[in-house]
Amino acid sequence: MNEKPARPYRQSKRARSQEETRLRIVEATMRLHEELGPRNTTISAIAERAGVQRLTVYRHFPDETAVFQACTAHWLSLNPPPDPADWAAIADPRARFRAAIAAFHGYFSRTRAMWTVSFRDVAEVPALHGPMAEVAAFLAGVAADLVAAFGAEAAPHVAPTIRHALAFPTWADLEAQGLTNAEKLDLVTGWLFGHEGWRAPGAA
Prior knowledge:
mainly alpha, Tetracycline Repressor, domain 2, elongated, 9 helices
């Protein structure tokens, strides 16, 4: 019986090895971003953390932008943001707003380390501009859907208030002041509906 050639197996094994190395580089970048921040994460530091040579990093990623984009995509796959489909069926715009804000506040609590350094460093790290612009576009879409639920007669303050309530820096500022997520939710709801005398369920 003729033996099958070994070349396809060797090629497959090599491809797996390359993919494993690429993932190791991406995960090293992700950990360094959380620990040091993107502006302090160098290609040399990535290579050292991943246990490879700098040339190996460049073999997989032509520049800093490419490796940062891969890092962002991988991190988001592990930490996906809330899905607007989870509250899309809620007809009451007030209840929909609270459901969305509660979901994002919980998400920010779990992922604060990465968002903190990303917002801190974005102005100084061009490689972050694209990924952070995509995040901003996603949040803008979420906000637009929440605003649309109020209909054409929504008060002028509704849109800017919703956009502000969805922003990570807003959550982080309230967090720094010692508010719990439940307290943050009631506060931002008050911003939106306080003029109507809104109160949280069960409030006196």
